[in-house]
Amino acid sequence: MAISLRRARTIIRKAMEKGQEMELKPLSVVVLDAGGHVIAFERSDGAAPGRFAIAQGKAYGAVMLGMAGRAQMARAEQQAYFMAAVNGVYGGQVVPVPGGVLVRDRKGAVIGAVGVTGDTSDNDAEAALAGIEAAGLTGEA
Amino acid sequence: MAISLRRARTIIRKAMEKGQEMELKPLSVVVLDAGGHVIAFERSDGAAPGRFAIAQGKAYGAVMLGMAGRAQMARAEQQAYFMAAVNGVYGGQVVPVPGGVLVRDRKGAVIGAVGVTGDTSDNDAEAALAGIEAAGLTGEA
Amino acid sequence: MAISLRRARTIIRKAMEKGQEMELKPLSVVVLDAGGHVIAFERSDGAAPGRFAIAQGKAYGAVMLGMAGRAQMARAEQQAYFMAAVNGVYGGQVVPVPGGVLVRDRKGAVIGAVGVTGDTSDNDAEAALAGIEAAGLTGEA
Amino acid sequence: MAISLRRARTIIRKAMEKGQEMELKPLSVVVLDAGGHVIAFERSDGAAPGRFAIAQGKAYGAVMLGMAGRAQMARAEQQAYFMAAVNGVYGGQVVPVPGGVLVRDRKGAVIGAVGVTGDTSDNDAEAALAGIEAAGLTGEA
Q1: Residue B88 and residue D96: Cβ atoms within 8 Å?
Q2: Residue-wise pLDDT tens digits, A70-113
Q3: A45, B55, B130, D105: most buried, per Cβ within 10 A?
Q4: If interface means Cβ-Cβ distance under 8 Å, which residues of chain A face chain B?
């Protein structure tokens, strides 16, 4: 099962609505497929220009390692040099903090990831989960 | 004047609708701001996974050089080594063919660019122009 | 509102004059636009040859993240691996210390950033702020 | 002998004045030292955002190879693969066309280079030469 563009749009809209409800700073949201490639992205008006790279880095590490942002952060805190090395092998495209959320299908297989950035990492992750659930999928933050 | 996220969404949807009307292959569309940074991107179901980089490269070269895809292609045909060198200084992020379309405001200032990829370069450019016009802006292909 | 070349020149000259008044080491000063692209740069006689990259890195991170040097430094001290990862996604172009100063217009929107390097980070930031104020703009260090 | 900041400023201002006299498009001008490092840069209002990289690439190749833009272009036309390889070893930072002008002292030693971009390559080179002469130095286009 792949994330369709229709579902990716739902994820982005609902994550942004959640951010507005929670009164977060302007969010940026990316949805990647199971190969780590971009399906859709939106940056809210007022967000800093470089937000694509942060959102993508959060989601990319999640897909490539099969490990959500919180687990990556725990590993980075235990073994900073390991996550630095991982970042090297993936061309600098990994941002190991919450806000990178794995998307799973009903059988538990990873079918992509969502990256949210703009507020604190924990709030970013909460908005991502809201978007993923609204699309009828299961997120792992 | 900046391209708002609302307008970027209109550009993407209308470019994709134009593609469906013209019976093109599945399109991918990116909208960049005046600094070459991503505002929004969508990849149609059925498009190849690597389409983000192609769409972004078409639009990025347009913004950074202030030169639309057709003018870049003409220069590449006259002086292939020049466009190769330009690509080098911009980190390999330039795809000098039609489908990279400058977006101008009423006074003629460049406020961003749209990159479309998926069908022939000329058809890609036509879809981009349709999206830009639907958003009340002026495109230069 | 964009920073004009005239204003960028004023920022650079006044930042350098401030450095002379404070008897700082020879300064180098860059002014970037809202997309992180260079408007103007000057390196004082006697400064080390590699100063462009340091000045640019201080200002670039500020614009791309919408976060001034002091806030970046605080984040780097809390989560070193996070700022290392951010540096990766921005191609190694981020120097997260004071001296990278956001420039805001009257409504508070970020319209660019100034990067100063040559003396201590705090003195660099003070010189940047002096230049920005002399140009009639508001800095956030 | 090194190019002082005072002289670099003169080069930039006079190159830009020459561009206005000749009614060229908005120019961007960089001055590099004998090691290929930036002394000063200015981008005219209205120039495309990516002009720093093009100006720098024209001047950088000139200094690093000790060969002005016209000679680089001739070589690129004869042996495209050679200039492509040169570009590779210099990290993609070489733009081998006119507008990259060597600066020599009275004894003929290379003390830096000027890179101008914005109009045709030949017009860019003419503006660079005007700036270099106004600063009492000798240019080789």
Answers
A1: no
A2: 999 999 999 999 999 999 999 999 999 999 999 999 889 999 99
A3: B55
A4: 2, 4-5, 8-9, 33, 35, 37-45, 49-50, 52
Cα B50 → chain centroid: 15
What phi, psi does B78 have (nearest 5°)?
Answer: -75, -45
**CB count in 10 Å sphere of residue B78:** 9
Map residue B35 onto helix, strand or coil. Answer: coil
Q: What phi and psi, each to the nearest 5 degrees, are found at residue D117? A: -145, 150
User: Quick one: average pLDDT of D48-53?
Assistant: 97
Who's near C74: CB < 8 A, 6+ residues apart?
Answer: none
Residue of D nearest to B78 (CA): D77
Half-sphere exposure of D120 (CA within 13 A, CB side): 5
Buried b or exposed e, range B9-31, using 16+ CB within 10 angstroms: bbbbbbbbebbeeeebebbbbbb
Structure tokens at D37: 């490092």
Q: What does the alpha-carbon distance between residue B13 and residue B34 come to, in Å, rounded to a whole number?
A: 21
Q: Given C36, C79, C89, which is nearest A54 (Cβ)?
A: C89
Assess contact for A132 and A138: CB atoms under 8 A: yes
Instruction: Please state the ipTM of this predicted complex.
Output: 0.95
* Residue-wise pLDDT tens digits, C94-124: 999 999 999 999 888 999 999 999 999 999 9
A1-18 per-position pLDDT tens digit: 899 999 999 999 999 999
CA distance to partner chain B, nearest, from residue D97 (Å)? 7
Is D115 in contact with D30 (CB distance < 8 Å)? yes
Tell me which residue has tokens 């002091």. C70
Residue among A4, A43, A49 minimizing CB distance to B35 = A49
CA distance A98 to chain C (A): 11
Whose tokens are 């990766």? That residue is C88
Q: What is the pLDDT of residue D106?
A: 86
| DSSP, res D17 | H
Chains B and A touch (3+ CB pairs under 8 A): yes
CA distance B55 to B116: 5
d(CA C59, CA C65): 10
Radius of gyration of chain C (CA): 14
Q: Which DSSP symbol is given to D24?
A: P
Chain-centre distance for alpha carbon D104: 13
Which residues of chain A lie closer than 8 angstroms to C35, CB-CB? 49
Going from the N-terminus, what domains does chain B have, and what CATH number goes with each? Answer: 5-140 (3.30.450.150)
Chain C touching partners, 3 or more CB pairs below 8 A: A, B, D
